[in-house]
Design a protein that fits this description.
Elements lengths: L1 E6 L5 H13 L3 E6 L9 H8 L3 E2 L8 H6 L3 H8 L2 E7 L1 H9 L5 H8 L3 E6 L3 H5 L1 H12 L3 E2 L3 E4 L5 E5 L3 H13 L8 E6 L4 E2 L5 E2 L6 H12 L3 E6 L11 E4 L3 H11 L5 E4 L6 E3 L18 E3 L3 H7 L5 E8 L3 H12 L3 E6 L11 E8 L4 E8 H22 L1
Helix pairs in contact: 1-2, 1-9, 4-6, 5-8, 10-14
Length: 404
């Protein structure tokens, strides 16, 4: 597969050379297009030597009239010859040009002529990334279906710390390979996915929680975005890095998770409730630490909000997928839960099976669907199971629409 690598004019441009090599290790043919500013940070010869291909730096340059005439449609040819346009680093200037349709150099002109998958890896100062103009430009480009990889947060070349760091080249290449290797059958879908546990405070330093790691929900989010979906991930406290391209809303309590889900429900076409939400909370949490004494302590617990049931009551045409982590009678409990909560699918699994479930990278589940079908999914990585869940979710929705 052919990739056009656009290199913007930022200090992170030097990392684009490493990115070109990483893409080639994945089997891509890489053609490099550099802005004039990018050439101030790294030479075109570097990319020509690495890729073995011509590097394009501008529309005209120091060429004769005949050469200019013969290459007048070169941006069209490059657009037609490549399936993916990857821009890294995508500077604030390039994002603004792309969002507003400006075409004053080869890369911005190529962008307007390009009809394949556009992937943008931003890198810039934190203040520039967070500026309202950049935020608006990013929103415009995402609305066009372009995929964003990063930026990461960390130490920046300007000496500050914050968001704006280019994602590591190997990770960008992996993400591009994932995009190229997967059919984009979720393009146009918006997922709201919940993941992880919740923490219900007992006092300012203690809380009730459970053993959920969030790995299954994060795997589903990563799989969905790799297949073209927009993903809003409502995450309880976990020790997992956010998947690239996923919008993460971090929450702590069941009430906060409920509010975040409902705030994004209108945008959702598919809701996946994989979080292990606490069933109980303390209604009146003291504002001071409870002191340890020899006396027995009793906690008065109230039920938390039932997010799955509330979404089920308001789901409309949305597909609703819930989870049931059980120790016995898993299929029966999953079917009961599906009916009571008005879900379309329940993903059931036993949490007392060694090597799977909470904290593990493996899982073994059964998909219980409102059509009456029950599909066992053999033990596999949670990433593989995430794709199987999405495969069956699409089949289920087609069956439900056909039955209407």
């Amino acid at each position: 597969m052919n990739v056009a690598l656009g290199v913007g004019g930022g200090i992170a441009a030097y990392k684009a050379a490493e990115l070109a090599r990483a893409l080639m290790r994945h089997g891509f043919t890489v053609s490099t297009v550099m802005t004039k500013s990018a050439c101030e940070f790294v030479t075109p010869l570097t990319f020509a030597a690495l890729t073995g291909r011509k590097v394009i730096t501008d529309l005209f340059g120091n060429r004769s009239a005949d050469e200019i005439l013969s290459s007048s449609v070169e941006h069209i040819e490059v657009a037609q010859q490549n399936e993916i346009l990857l821009v890294a680093p995508a500077t604030a200037d390039l994002l603004a040009k792309f969002a507003n349709g400006l075409a004053d150099d080869f890369l911005s002109t190529l962008y307007l002529a390009f009809r394949g998958q556009v992937i943008l890896a931003p890198a810039m100062n934190t203040n520039m990334w967070e500026h309202p103009a950049t935020v608006a430009n990013v929103a415009t480009l995402k609305a066009r279906g372009h995929r964003f990889i990063g930026p990461d947060a960390g130490d920046l070349a300007c000496g500050t710390v914050g968001a704006g760091r280019l994602v590591e080249p190997e990770l960008i290449a992996d993400a591009v390979a994932a995009c190229a290797g997967r059919k984009m059958d979720l393009d146009g879908e918006t997922f709201v996915i919940t993941a992880g546990p919740t923490q219900e405070p007992i006092d300012p330093v203690r809380y009730i929680t459970n053993r959920s790691s969030g790995k299954m929900g994060y795997a589903i989010a990563e799989a969905a975005v790799a297949r073209g979906a927009r993903v809003i991930l409502v995450s309880g406290p976990v020790q997992i890095a956010a998947p690239l391209g996923v919008e993460v809303v971090r929450v702590r309590t069941a009430a906060e998770m409920r509010d975040a889900v409902m705030a994004n429900l209108e945008a959702a076409t598919i809701v996946v409730k994989s979080a292990a939400v606490a069933d109980y909370h303390i209604a009146n949490v003291p504002d001071k630490k409870i002191k340890k004494t020899a006396a027995r302590v009793t906690l008065d617990l109230d039920s938390t909000v039932d997010i799955l049931a509330e979404v089920g009551a308001r789901k409309g045409d949305r597909l609703l997928i819930g989870f049931a982590a059980e120790t016995n009678d898993m299929v029966a409990e999953a079917r009961r839960k599906m009916q009571v909560k008005k879900a379309d699918m329940i993903v059931g699994n036993f949490v007392n099976v060694a090597g799977t479930g909470f904290g593990s990278d493996l899982n073994e589940v059964t998909l219980v669907m409102s059509t009456g079908e029950t599909v066992p999914v053999e033990r596999a990585t949670k990433k593989d199971i995430a794709h199987k869940i999405l495969d069956h979710a699409l089949r289920l929705r087609l069956a439900l629409h056909s039955a209407r």
